[in-house]
Amino acid sequence: MTLVALQDVAKSVLLADDSRLEILRGIDLEVSAGDHVSIVGRSGSGKSTLLNILGMLDAPTSGTVSFEGREVRRMRSGRLDRLRGDNVGFVFQQFNLLPGRTAIDNVMMPLGHAKGRMFWNRRQIAADMLERVGLGHRVDQVADRLSGGEQQRVAIARALVRGPVLILADEPTGALDIDTGASVMSLLDEVATETDAALVTITHDLHVAARARRHYRLDAGTLVPADLSRAFEASTLAAPVPAPPIGPSA
Amino acid sequence: MTGFLGALADAWAEIRVHKLRVLLSLIGIAVSVGALTAVVAISEYQRQYQAEQSDRWGGRAATIVVGVSSEEGEPVDIGDFDERFERVSERFAFSHTARIVQGMTVGVRLPEGITDVNARLMDPVYSQIHREQLLEGRWLRDSDIEALAPAVVISEPLWDRLGRVPLTQHPIVTLTGAGGGTYQVVGVVPRQGFGDEELRIDLLYDGYRDRVDALPEGAWSQYEIWVGPEQADEIGPVLAMDLRAGLPEGQTVSVSRSDWAAQPGTMEVQATFEMVTGGIAALILALGALSLINIQLVAMRQRVREIGVRRAFGASSGRVFFSVFLESLVATTVAGAIGIAIVVAVLRSDWLLTSMFVGMQDVPPFPMRAALIGLVASVIVGAVSGFIPALVALRVKVIDAIRF
C-alpha cells in the first residue's frame, strides 16, 4: 500500500531580487509501508526540502502530495498536524532534542499530542521505548548531557514512540563519528523493519545510503535513481558496499 | 480533555525547566500584585482609622446633636430641658444618649498653685459614642455617682503636672470653687497628637449637678444620641418637632448630625485616596507586565526550534498557542497568589497595624476585596503577557524553526 505519493512536485521560492529559485522540479516518488529509501545529493540540492514535503511540513509550489491516498493540500491545518503526529516520525541531523529536558521528557513529548491510552500511559510507553533503544539506564538524564550517539538514540526513540508508519531521517549520522553512526543506523533499520514502517533517509554518506533498498540522487532539483556502485567507485573513500537487503526496488 | 491537560503539562514542564528565568521574571509580578493588594487593604484600614478618628470628634455614625439656646442670650433652665429631653428619648427608645457640658473651667490644686483647667461634664455613654481612648485606667461609670470621692478622668498633660502618679496608687485631685472637693483620678486620656498640652478634667454629669445647682457662666450643654445611620435622617426632623413642642417662648432647639458620615465629600476624599494609591500600584503592575512580556518574547526567540520540533511531532498551532499562553497565566497566577499570601501574612500582624494606625480600636479582618482584586490583576497580567508571546509562537514556521 502506498503511504506517500508525490506527483510532479515542484518547489520554488521568491528571492529578494524578485527572481524565482527552483529548488525541486517534477518530482515523482512513491513510498510504501516497509519501504527503505535513501536519497543522496550535494548540499543545497533540495534534499531537506523534499523531506519536509514528504513529512507534510512544507507544501509544494505545484504538483500533488497524497498520504494514504488523500490529497494533503485539501486538508485543514489542524487535521494535517494530527495526521503528521499520528503517522510520521522525524530524526534530525542535529537531534533537535528539547533543551533542559530529560531523555524521557523528550520521548514523552509526541505522546502528549496523542489521545486515549497513549496519552495516559505516556511515561511507561516512553520508558519502554528508551529501553528498546538501549537507554533504559539514562531515562532521567538531561538530554543535553548525553553523548552524541545517545542523543541520537533518544531522537530515534522520540521518532518511533507513537509507532509511525513513515520515518523520515535527515542526515541522521551527520553529527556522529563513523562507528556511532553505523550503530545508530543499524538501530533505525532494525526498528523500522520490526514495525513495518517506511524509512526515508537523506544523507551525504554513501555507506548510510547503501543500507536502503532503493536509492535516489537529487541533482539540481531533479530526483533520479542512483547507482551507488558507481558512486563508490568515484569516491576517494571507496569502500566495500554492503549487500543491499532483498526487497522491492525502484 | 487530553488536549487541555497536555497543554497544561507542557506549560508546567516549561516553568519547571526554566525555573530561574521564570522565578526572576515573576518576582516583579509577585511584588506588584502584592503592592496592589496591600494598597487596597491599607486603604480599607485607613478608612476605618479615619472613621475612628472622626468618631472621636464628631461621634460615631450617626450621632444626632441636640442643642438648646435662648434667642436673647438668657440662660436656659437646663434641669427643665433635661426632663424634656428624657421624656422624648423614652418615647423614641434611644439606647445611647449622653449629656455634655463644655466651655467651663474649674480650679485645680497643682504643685505650683491653683490653676484653671478646662472641664467637661458628661454621661458615661459619651465615651462609647466618641470612642474615647484611655492611656491608663478606666472611663467614668454610672455607679461612680455613689463613690464618696467622685471619679474624674484627666488629660495626660494634667497627669504629668500631678506627678504622673500610677493609677494603682489611687491618685487624687483637689478642685476648688463650686463643686470643689477631692476627686479620684480613675483614667487618663492620652495626648491627641504632638504639642497637645491641654489641661482638662472630665467629670460625671450627674455627680457634678448633685453638688452644684447652676452651671457656671459661659458653659453650654448639648445632648448626643447615637442611632443607626439609616435611621438618622428619618428620626432627626421628628425628634426636633417633638422637642420644640411646648418649648418656652424665646428658646430654640437645634437638631443636627455631627458625625463624619454626614459631612459632604468624606467618601469622595476616601475614594480619591484609594484611586491615587491604586493607580500607582496599577502602574507598577503594568511595568511588571511589560517586563514579563519582554522576557517572554526574548525567551520565545530562543524557543523557536523547540516550537518547530513540537509542531513536527503533531502539535497543532492552537496547542502551541495555548501552551505558551498557559505558561504565563499559570506562572503569574501562582506568583500573584504568593504576593497576596505574603501581604495577608504581613497585614495580619497586630503589631504592624497598631504601629501604622496608632489607636485603631476595631481592627477589621483582612479585606477579601483586596485579595480578589490582586488575584484578578495577576490573572489579567498573565493573560496579557501570555497572549503576545503566544501570538509570536503561533507565527513560527515549522520549516524555518527546525533549521533555526
Describe the structure.
The complex is a heterodimer of chains A (250) and B (404). With 250 residues, chain A is α/β, with parallel strands linked by helices. Chain A has one domain (2-234): P-loop containing nucleotide triphosphate hydrolases (Rossmann fold, 3-Layer(aba) Sandwich), CATH 3.40.50.300. Chain A has nine helices and ten strands. In chain A, the strands form two sheets. A six-stranded mixed β-sheet of chain A has the order 6-7-8-3-9-10, with helices on both faces. Chain A has a four-stranded antiparallel β-sheet with strand order 2-1-4-5, with helices on one face. In chain A, strand 7 (166-170), helix 7 (178-195) and strand 8 (198-203) form a beta-alpha-beta unit. In chain A, helix 5 (122-132) packs across helix 6 and helix 6 (148-160) runs parallel beside helix 7 (178-195). The longest helix of chain A is centred in the last third of the chain and has 18 residues, at 178-195. Chain A is globular. Chain A starts with a strand and ends in a 16-residue tail after the last helix. The mean pLDDT of chain A is 85. Chain B is an alpha+beta fold. Chain B has two domains: 2-55 and 265-403, no CATH class; 57-262, no CATH class. In chain B, 55% of the residues lie in helices and 18% in strands. In chain B, helix 2 (19-58) runs antiparallel to helix 8, helix 2 crosses helix 10 (317-347) and helix 2 packs antiparallel against helix 12 (368-394). The model of chain B has no long low-confidence stretch (mean pLDDT 86). Chains A and B meet through helix 2 and helix 4 of A and helix 1, helix 9, helix 10 and helix 13 of B.
